[in-house]
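Researcher: Here's the sequence for the chain we discussed earlier.
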Amino acid sequence: MESLVILGKTARWLAKLPDDFEAMAQAVVKKSVERFGLLFAWLGWAEIDGSVSAVAWYPESITYPAEITVRWDDSSLAQGPTGRAIKTGEPQISAKIEIDPSFSPWKEKALQAGVKSSAAFPLLSRGRVLGALNLYSSKENFFTEEKVSLIQDFAHIVATALEKARLFKELDQRIKRLSVLHSIDLAIAGSLDFRIVSRVIFDEVVAHAEAGAASLAVLEPHTRELKVVGTWGFSTKVKDARIPLEDQTASRVIRERKTIHIPDLAKLDEKATSRYQLFKKEGFTSYWGVPLVSKGSVLGVLEVFFRNPRDSNRDWLDFLETLANQTAIALENARLIEEVRTQHDQLLKAYDETIEGWAMALSLKEDETAKHSHRVTWLTVRMAELYGLQGKEPLFVRWGAFLHDIGKIGIPDAILLKPGPLTPSEWKIMKKHPVYAFEMLSKIDYLQKAVDIPYCHHERFDGSGYPRGLRGKEIPLPARFFAVADVWDALTSERPYRKAWSQEDALAHIRAQSGKHFDPQAVELFFEVIAEEETLE
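Model: Thanks. This is the structure I predict for it:
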């Protein structure tokens, strides 16, 4: 019963913590020390590459987790309690660390600090081990069967909360990264052509190094082959050629991740490279290959060939490696820009689907059909296009139209769903929904440009609308378009309290309200859209 109380308190405590991964991890290790009466605790997170990151520890004066290397793969550094806990998904208990051969590399320091026993608990969530919670006690045999069971349950609850916080952090970082990369894309898209950059690199190699030829080979991750994507100075066509991973020239550069110099190609074994005959035909005498490394990953190889003997020195090597660094940056940028374009499109699609889902959820709450949101959205976007809005503006109009009544989330159901007419005091509350929409959407960066319709679609051209009583062109243009589309769809749709108007009567009403309820220009655009529909029919 006591364990259930503790776990219940833990769940409530975690729920109150902010979705900050590092702060939550720090709170967890501190809580572990205080709640279970421990000397020390640290939390390790299992990374994809097999390493374990020390995320937090308490007391913070003990910094050894940040100083050691722990892994959870099959290496020797994964044989300790933390690595085994992550690999097996089972708690690893050291009842007496003094006689435990697996407890390393901190045994001596631990004993000096008064540590007598330890335990590493896997952080399990949804069937996956995320890391380990490592605990240390001043008592031998501290981690009894009962305590192990309780702490493992504690670790399960903690793992779920940490996973959520970590995913939130990764998503936030991804969105920020996409935003930054997209900004970079807009800034350099006009000039960042990798073919031009590679040509400049080749020109620099030739101009400053008197090289006979140069090539650029890019590593293809799926085939693990190198593909030649650019050349200069070859008499034989070699572009798009492929270099197998067993090759002792460019592929050796990739494998060893360092600059390779072959001073005499004639001494190279014919079986060592698939390009032996090519080198002989071209008359190459020596070779330099430099890895293109960006953010720790090898992207390819910059190769330089000489037909005449050449003495190399440190300056030459520094120059060549600098050119390789520039090439790697250009290549990485080109790849990132393409990735950003793809991810940006995917992100916009996800945003669009999410927004449409919100609109559908709200329409279901009000017992409206999803077709209403789609119809008014299409009409408004088409009016915006006829007006001449370009780029992303129609997208913001689309989002704003879908979310036009999102502020009604803040209206009590007793008022929102009331079957009869509203009282004056209830109308006062109902009229706050555009303000609620503004307060909600203006805090979301990517929706700030979509807030005009939700905030202003009840304003009237003559100034008699709400919530601010805007007049004429004080009303944002998208809201003026939407007001016409919304009224049209409302009049021509069946309602529980009235029949649908005929199209003729609805069109006449909209024409009559031009300059009163509606912007005359918006009315004319609306009639153009209606005429288009009739033509299509």
